[in-house]
Amino acid sequence: MQFDKHGVLDMAQMNYDADRPKASNPIKVNDVSLRDGHQSLFATRGRTEDMIPVAEMLDEVGFNAIETWGGATFDTMHRFLGEDPWERLRVLKKHITKTPFSMLLRGQNVVGYRNYADDVVRAFVQRAIDNGMDIFRCFDALNDYRNFETAAQVIKDNGKHFQGTVCYTLNEKRLGGDVYNMDYYLGKVRELDAFGVDSICLKDMAGLMAPYDAYNLISEIKKISETPISLHTHFTSGMGDLTIFKAIEAGVDIVDTCMAPYAYRTSHAAIEPLVVSLYGTSRDTGFDLAQLSKIGKKMEEYIPKYRHLDNSPKYAIIDTDVIMHQTPGGMLSNLVNQLKAMDALDKLDDVFEQLPKVRKDLGDIPLVTPTSQIVGIQTVNNVLFDKEQGEYASITEQVKDLCYGLYGKTTKPINPEVQKKALAGYPRGEEPITCRPGSILEDEMPGVKDKFKDLAKDIDDEVLCALYPVTGKRFLKWKYGLEEVPAEVKPRTMEDVKHDAELVEKALSGKLTDKGSDDKPENMRELEVYVDGEKFVVEVADANAKGGKRKKKEKKEDVVELSADGAMTAPIPGLITEVKKSVGDTVEAGETVLVLEAMKMMNNISAPAAGTIEEIKVESGDSVSKGDVMFVIK
Q: Does residue 29 have a pLDDT over 60?
């Protein structure tokens, strides 16, 4: 029988053996389960202890690379898991000895949410290399490759692999239009080739790349570049498998997948069906399906520890609405959580409606960390505050930095009216810059070394504090036993999972009565179970729950009673990163008194009236809910 060719594919003899002959042009595969998989599905809460059991098994598969680090892992580990990010790298390197490690690096943003000084970038990249990193997938949210320069130099000086990234986004439902079209992406590939990258990644963070667009784009790239091309696409829209297949037919060199337990939804396509589908072709992976099955079964053993973090409100595993609102999965979960915390989830449709306008105002920028958070939070602020206070009534610090040029050059010019309003009184000046952002940032490491000299024990600690001064300081106190690790940071155990399951089973069988109460013990959460239309409220232990009888909560309830004139409350939930005033200070109306981090973006909180600071109820590192009293101004 004569078969047609599918792009670059050639049919070969069917062979299912684990040791079958190597294909003539095998597709290379990166596994991203240990980083982007759990980042996409359960908020990057995967713990090192649950990676170790499968680490050596993954090492035997034959992956091109295993993504073990970067992205949100550095932040989440020290902030929510009480784990040292550097230690994960060292531990996994002991178990994965043959397969190269890869990480996602945000260029001058490093693994944070702003552009850091060159000395911080150099220190971080060098320590990542020293601790075991091999391949650096480096991206810039604005596709401004000047923000690669410092990181790339360190990577190349150490002989490591530098992968330049093109962030893929659209302003229509498919590739085209006057902004993100074929010419735009081919131009970015040419820039990366001129930069001297070792490979190029097409990073489709929201799953927007359609199959035939992938085929056409990669076919055209192959005509102008000999640099290996890697495709990173999410499954969010449901097109992930299809897009990967057309990319393979077009000649893509490397694709990203996850093991099945970490795949699909807002994550990535699974590796297992890809292996089967490519049997008998010139692009056969060569992987042993039985080995992959063993790994998946091992992963399934501890996945129940993370099921409570699944924030999907839908039964469907895809969300085609992403084609219209183009919100990456991580950005969407941030928006939902932020609106929930403000009792404003009913405003989600308004946020989706406003997102395109805010994105256009801010230069039609791609939506990927940190620009996705920048656009998302500003949109939330506009929806909640603009109707009463005027357009762009509450502008985040990051939007001001973007308007000044601290993130780089936007795809299109920023709306001049928005830019003018954002830069009014901006500390660095009201005229935006056009140079490489890192070139105007002063060295930060000397100040960090001095500020944290009594706490940081080595350069890794210092780099952590440079990136995250508030949460980094808190983590080091946990790490060195200066403060007790909070219950919500400690890991759930399989015993916890079993106990919860037993309670749910009892509720479903009618053996529990309604025990809902506002006076529940610390670190308990309520689980609602419905049996024949009757609601049962089951209280279960949860290390991540915020208990009912915490001292912090009682204190806030007492303070709320003082909310006569002068009580200044939090307009949004978040983390206090800086208190700028002391008791006894006088303030003017509109003067910034503290900085509040919400969804990883900084918001200057201003005094509502002139007066004297009579009482301060918060300090740096405190979390607040909407309506919590922070200051009392007399």
A: yes
